[in-house]
Amino acid sequence: MSATDAALDLLILILVALVPALVYLLWVRSTERYRTSSWGSILGAFAYGAFFATIVAAILEAVIVSLGTSVSNLYPGPEFVFLNGNSTLGAFFLVLVVAPFVEEALKGSGVYAYRAQIRTVADGAVFGASVGLGFGFFETFLYGVSAYVVGGLEAGIALIVVRSVSSVLLHGSSTGMFGYGYGRSRLGVPGAGTGSYYLVAVGMHASFNALASLAAILMVFGITGVAVSLASILALLAAITFAFAAIEHVRHVIAVYDYPALAPGPARRPPAARR
């Protein structure tokens, strides 16, 4: 394969990953009707998630896995085996615990970086979704490149398409919920705020990853064959359903809290929010 062909393939992978994420971004932004955030700020938040949050999260996760593996090797007892990144249990610990906490924190930092643009509670959810969709886009592109190296362009496109209707939406919705919580705290709405909604985002992320890992979990327990294949299909459908339901909930939150008030409080919520 020539360098030109390889560059063209990478361009195709970028576009296949980017276009759905931008469509979702437009979908979320269009939910705001009154004080719609500027495209410059929205795309800036998207880029923050795509590059800064994704790259820093990958570095932190690699460091944590490396340190955990060192500890596990130094203390080889069963109590530390989950820290070993080379073990099956260690892989599950990374996917179900480390990644959700680290990635949601890095994506949440993007919401904080654009705090001056958060004028309503709805803005918090919009900027959270923007950062999350950017993160989902670039992470999906990187996974697509890995699949491309192993199986060619078709394999890369197939993986990107599957992740675009599942993981990308999950990242947008989980950070959208964090942004909603941050917006509540920033604008003085009583009740659960930033910390609580960070844990909500982590829980959403971990739950999605558990669904996506269902087949691997079954294999650990010795279940193979048709049962695993069926579980993989059902888990994928469940993960896609979960992702779409989650982003719809974020859009509902935006619609409820989208109204012309710079600093909404409980006494000035729209009728839909008071019911």
Give the key terms.
single chain; 275 residues; mainly alpha; 10 helices; 0% strand; globular; disordered C terminus
Averaged pLDDT, please? 88
Cα distance spanning the termini: 62 Å
Tell me the fraction of residues in β-strands, as a range.
under 5%
Question: Main β-sheet: number of strands, strand sense, barrel status?
Answer: none
What is the domain tally?
1
Percentage of residues assigned to helices? over 70%
Question: Which structural class matches the secondary elements?
Answer: mainly alpha
The residue ranges in which pLDDT falls below 50 over 5 or more consecutive positions are: 261-275
Number of strands: 0
Give me the number of helical elements: 10
List the secondary-structure elements in sequence, H or E.
HHHHHHHHHH
Structural account:
With 275 residues, the chain is mainly α. The protein has one domain. It has helices at residues 3-29, 39-74, 88-113, 121-151, 153-164, 167-186, 194-212, 214-220, 226-257, 271-274. α6 (167-186) runs antiparallel to α7 and α7 (194-212) packs antiparallel against α9 (226-257). The protein is globular, with a radius of gyration of 20 Å.
Layout of helices and strands, plus pairs?
Elements: H1 3-29, H2 39-74, H3 88-113, H4 121-151, H5 153-164, H6 167-186, H7 194-212, H8 214-220, H9 226-257, H10 271-274
Structure summarized in a few sentences:
By secondary structure, this protein is mostly helical.
